[in-house]
Amino acid sequence: MSLTSSNPLxxxxxxxxxxxxxxxxDELYEAALRLGEGxxxxxxxxxxxxxxxxxSPKDRFIVEDDLTRGAVWxxxxxxxxxxxxxxxxxxxxxxxxxxxxxxxQDVYAGTDxxxxxxxxxxxxxxxxxxxxxxxxxxxxxxxxxGFEPDWTVLNIPSFKADPERDGVRSETFILVNFSRKMIIxxxxxxxxxxxxxxxxxxxxxxxxxxxMPMHCSANVGAEGDVALFFGLSGTGKTTxxxxxxxxxxxxxxxxxxxxxxxxxxxxxYAKVIHLSPEAEPAIHRTTQTYxxxxxxxxxxxxxxxxxxxxxxxxNTRSAYPIEQMGNIVEGGMAxxxxxxxxxxxxxxxxxxxxxxxxxxxxxYFFLSGFTAKIPGTEDxxxxxxxxxxxxxxxxxxxxxxxxxxxxxxxxxxxxGARVWLVNTGWTGGQYGQGKRMSIAHTRRxxxxxxxxxxxxxxxxxxxxxxxxxxxxxxxxxSEVLNPRDAWADKDAYDRTARKLAGMxxxxxxxxxxxxxxxxTASMPEHGRG
Length: 529
Hints:
The structure is a single chain. The chain is α/β, with parallel strands linked by helices. It is built from 15 helices and 28 strands. Strands 11, 12, 13, 14, 15, 19, 20, 21 and 24 form a nine-stranded mixed β-sheet that branches. An eight-stranded mixed β-sheet has the order 1-6-7-8-10-9-4-5, with helices on both faces. Strands 2-3-17-18-16 form a five-stranded mixed β-sheet, with helices on one face. The model is unreliable at 1-5 and 376-381 (pLDDT under 50).
């Protein structure tokens, strides 16, 4: 149809399109099935397959101009591109979009009205529009009237760039323009780019307002005690925050203001490979619920999801409104955290299952953002290898890591929050020799930390990272608490711990010029004792 004077795509220069503006779940299911984007799985979720099975961080660019030139930490995941490249690609995209069927969702990024962004997401795929509806905060009917976006996302997966002519790396691109308040994306059907793009925007804007943006999950106990869980994919961030005895605030992205915590999202994007109905019943239930998007999950012949099948990807996902979890904090806001948990899946089997961090160690481990890859997760990975993702979210952090670390340190000091390092990885040996930490033991350790139960427990220091380890926690065998005790070959443990400590030190050289010398001084030692 021809768009009217109230055309929500006027600012993009799209004059003619078949437009679905704020379509509901039923309409999006019908469109996705009509367009051949997926099928309905047993129980009702929409199951889709995508040409990309994960994010494309090397194809993400930030427009370098007067606004960003001195504010963005260029290098790594923050690659500059000129305003001309952005303008040329945008012009090609809008011309390509003329006359096509498009889906528009008007949503908020952030549950706190004082700090949320109004975002208009324009997508070519109906399933993307359902994903956006699930993952962002949905406005009320009254808020949709006269909705004016702060930011616009234009995502057309079938539009591919010409790298040589368009000034990008490949056919896939995600370009962020802070001056024009726009994100344009093409060449990838992976829906996660829609939410992570806006997460990166918030990570740039919020520190200017004194708000700490965080890649973490959050929940709250019966006494109102808030806990944050930082961690990279596969560390248990979503699983451990979904505790039936505590209400979920959110599973992935939050802001910390002068008054407390707020969720950036209105939904959850859970990794579901090998998801257990016994260990994670609430998340498992979403994989059989109408309205959920299942991304790259293999279906059996009878339409039931096979959550143990990673033949398409290990990064299988379930995207659903947070209300499906049931036990949630209405409104997505709570007070200041009393406890902060840094999660790591240490495949080297070196780090303790739980340790208490000093203020300097908090900044050190936050900047390090350590976890480990295991053999088989990526081509060429044949033994455990370290992953250091600054601030537990390097691809989404436009500013210098030191800015985020200093802001976190201020928030921790002002709130008096306790900070813990929890290893959900291996014990008794590295991957292939030891075994994965028991989720029951991990939950018990975290509950003991959050409840204050460890206040009277004696702590000792381990020699390689100078971490404080509890000597006893009811319900957890004492030999599990100290990782060296769990290894049969103590010399092998010492060699592996020394090796990992050296990896930490080498990685941290990137930040030494931008952080407090006290933080640098807290780096682990190479030697023992």
